[in-house]
Amino acid sequence: MSVTNDHFALTQFAHGAGCGCKIAPQVLKEILQSSFVQPSKNILVGNSSNDDAAVYDLENGMALISTTDFFMPIVDDAFDFGRIAAANAISDVYAMGGKPIMALAILGWPIQKLPTALAQKVIEGARTICAEADITLAGGHSIDTLEPMFGLSVNGLLKTKDLKRNDTSKEGDLLFITKPIGVGVLSTAQKRGLLKDEDKVTLIKQLTQLNSIGEKLGKLQGVTAVTDVTGFGLLGHLMEIAQGSNLSAIINYSAIPKINNIEYYLKQNTIPDATFRNWNAYSAFTEIAADVNVMEAFNLLPDPQTNGGLLFSVNENEIKTVVSILKENGLHDFIAPIGKMTKKAEKAIKVLQ
User: Fold this and answer.
1) Which of 103, 178, 272, 280 would disulfide-bridge 152, Cβ 3.0–4.6 Å?
2) In the CATH scheme, what architecture does the domain 5-162 have?
3) What secondary structure, in 3-state letters, does the chain show?
4) Residues designated catalytic
5) pTM of the entire predicted model
């Protein structure tokens, strides 16, 4: 007998969802504390920064990117879960400015609770996204777990000179983002049975969209820093850029793209638990102007994103080139800057209307 997803809502078998499963920033900092000095020969990007992937210098003008990302279901459909997890993991390579070349699967499956046929659908979904990224899902590892989880370990390549980090912004750079925020709110609405059919289509489309524009942005010297917005929300990942670059940032809240119908779901109070966790971690470093809708900003700026857009800074002299590339790649809705990097101030981020 064939098994359909009608019988199993995957989100009901997991306590977390998508990148909202991330360990809280303050707790993660405690976990990673160490006095141990690791060999660093050829490591261009490693544990010394909060970047999206590790990067190894191949000493021939090229560098190897290595990353891994996995989480528990953010949607109920197994095939879509595989697609989303794969797109999210591959995004880290794009965020470094690189080209993905190969992936390995990481699967945890509660064998006693869920049919193996659904796990097969998860893998098949991942294969379709890997094919879209022109890479092979070449192997992996699986274990029997209490909750379903899935992701990829991904390798990529880039020219060393094209490497993009998240801590290299310059004062005066303008900030861009390539996807709207708010998917954490919509995914929580789905888990509670409140998500409208038309908004589910919007959600799945965004969650499975590859951030392949990152490879093109990586070739532009005027793009000074790049990261992808995931579990720490726009606020947290912008904080990493600002603090890592020893700068501050001003963002215009009204310029930030937000996912369709987000106001409806905010009224339903479909707020992920991780939003509060993120806000507690970053609120002390954030100033919100009096004319900003503070409650909405509180719910959206730290909203945990899964496979969120690329957040990047651009030298103001290269804006025309960047806008042209965004348009050529169908990102017409994201050609307006959302903020600017400034001299380091008392607060790392200032939110204006």
Assistant:
1) 103
2) 2-Layer Sandwich (3.30)
3) CCCCHHHCCHHHHCCCCHHHHCCCHHHHHHHHCCCCCCCCCCEEECCCCCCCCEEEECCCCEEEEEEEEEECCCCCCHHHHHHHHHHHHHHHHHHCCCEEEEEEEEEEECCCCCCHHHHHHHHHHHHHHHHHCCCEEEEEEEEECCCCEEEEEEEEEEEHHHCCCCCCCCCCCEEEECCCECHHHHHHHHHCCCCCHHHHHHHHHHHCCCCCHHHHHCCCCCEEEEEECCCCHHHHHHHHHHHHCCCEEEEEHHHCCECCCHHHHHHCCCCCHHHHHHHHHHHHHEEECCCCCHHHHHHHCCCCCCCCCEEEEECHHHHHHHHHHHHHCCCHHHCCCCEEEECCCCCCEEEEC
4) 19
5) 0.92
